[in-house]
Write a structure and sequence with these properties.
The protein is α+β, with helices and mostly antiparallel strands. It folds into 2 domains: 36 residues, YefM-like domain (YefM-like fold, 3-Layer(aba) Sandwich); 47 residues. It is built from 5 helices and 3 strands. Strands 1-2-3 form a 3-stranded mixed β-sheet. A hairpin with a 2-residue loop joins strand 2 and strand 3. The longest helix has 17 residues. The radius of gyration is 22 Å and the shape is elongated.
């Protein structure tokens, strides 16, 4: 793990971004950690965006709460519902 100050980040942005492919880099301001540069691929980006979307998180939490109070649905029931929907379209 490497540390880089804001000034270094500003002056050597591309170099630091390339180094972040090999290891995480902690960005500091006035000697205190402020951010972490962590390399991600395009596939990882899609996962990250979904996992950190507040609307998506809320929907998952609501669905889980409904599952806990109302119970779940069997796979066969879900397949039947989906097949019915696809025929209706």
């Amino acid at each position: 793990m490497r540390f880089a100050g804001v000034k270094e980040l500003k002056q050597k942005t591309m170099d630091i971004l390339k180094k972040s492919e090999e290891e995480d880099i902690i960005i500091t301001a006035y000697g205190k950690p402020k951010a972490i540069l962590h390399h991600i691929s395009e596939d990882d980006l899609a996962d990250y965006l979904i996992e950190n979307d507040p609307v998506f998180k809320t929907k998952i939490e609501e669905a889980y709460a409904a599952y806990e109070t109302q119970g779940g649905t069997t796979v066969d029931t879900m397949i039947t519902k989906l097949e019915r929907r696809s025929r209706e379209k």
